[in-house]
Every structure is written in C-alpha cells, then in structure tokens.
Amino acid sequence: MTREEFNQFAKRLFAEYPSIHGWLKYNSPDMAATLGHWFRILESYAYADCNSVLDRWQKTSSEPFGSYSKDHVPYAIRAVLDRDRDRARAKAKQQREAELRRQVRDAGFSLTRRFDKSMKEAYEQLRPYRLQLDDGEISQVEYQRMMDSILEGV
C-alpha cells in the first residue's frame, strides 16, 4: 500500500470508528508520527485487503478492538490479513497436493494402495518438482519431462 492509499484508508477508518481519531488526538504526542508507524505496519498489505477488513468488521457488527487497545488497531488489522494469507496458502497447498494425486492416479497408479518402495521413491522425487512448478520456477513442459523420467524408472 502506498502512503496515499494509507491516508485514504486511515480517513475511512476514522470515519467508521471516530473514537480512534479522538483517542489518537488526545493520547499521541505526535499524531503524524503515530500514523507513520501504523503505515509501516500495514504498508506490505494491499489497500483493497485493508479495506476488506473494515468491510468485514462492519458486516459482523462486532467490536474489533477493545476501548483500551486503540493503539493496537493496526495490529488487529494485520492479524486478520495474516490469517487470510495463511488460509490462502493452506488452500493453495491442498490444491497442489490434490493435483499431484490426480496426476499420479492418471498415470496409472493408485494412492489408496500402499506404496511399494519404488512408487514411494517416485513420489518423493516428483513432489519437489511439483512445488517448483506451482511456484513458477519450472515450466509445465519441464515438469512433464521430469515426471515421465521418474515414472519410467518405476
């Protein structure tokens, strides 16, 4: 998020939670420095993602932070965004592994039977290449070549 985006985000935050603005004006010796600190906490997150946190808080009508933890607001926002990232990563990992299982099954092997030693070795050799493919480090063609080579040895 850029500084200008953060300023827009802070403006919305203060409009929706005016007590935060009042608290900052009263308690912060330098409001600009405090907001600079908050910006540094949230700058690695997308503007849209930060706004989505406010949207969710509004929909749930819950108190996202206590009256004595207004100085922790950026940490509460960051915690929500980190949970979202963790969930997205876990889902992507599940999808990668499901795709790998599908490819192994389509290659004529059953994952429901116990792996014999050679199939287990093939799977262990193939898995790092699949992760490289998912991360964009190798192409689909390179991955297919690796898979064919490994499975030929089974």
Descriptive report:
With 154 residues, the protein is mainly α. It folds into 2 domains: 84 residues, no CATH class; 46 residues, no CATH class. α1 packs across α2, α1 packs parallel to α4 and α4 packs across α5.
How are the secondary structure elements laid out?
Layout: H1 3-16, H2 18-27, H3 31-42, H4 47-60, H5 73-106, H6 117-134, H7 140-152
List keywords for this structure.
mainly alpha; 2 domains; 7 helices
Mean pLDDT: 86
Number of domains: 2
- As residue ranges, the low-confidence spans are none
Number of helices: 7
Head-to-tail CA distance between termini: 50 Å
The beta-strand count equals: 0
Order of helices and strands: HHHHHHH
Strand % is under 5%
Largest sheet: none
Q: Portion of residues in helices? A: over 70%
Tell me the radius of gyration: 24 Å
Quick synopsis:
It is built from seven helices and no strands.
